[in-house]
Amino acid sequence: MMNQELTCGGAKAMAERELAAFFQAVTELYGPEQAEASAEDWLGELMARCGLPASVREWREVSIAAAARLAGRLGPGLQGA
What we know:
This protein has helices spanning 8-30, 32-48, 56-74. With 81 residues, it is an all-alpha fold. Helix 1 (8-30) runs antiparallel to helix 2, helix 1 packs parallel to helix 3 and helix 2 (32-48) crosses helix 3 (56-74). The longest helix is centred in the N-terminal third of the chain and has 23 residues, at 8-30.
């Protein structure tokens, strides 16, 4: 499914998988509080886009942007790790 246009149902499924994987990774690394804040960041990044991502790569860009916000929140030493 790489770089392939997604249907509406496919986009929803991809969003659910991407957010769930991101949330789980943040929970494991930094705990549930950071995971909650990061999920909000992830949704904010998605809402800031002009449209729904159309490929796996574009969904991953949403997660990368949310991860950058997490890194900014944790600071240079990644406190809380």
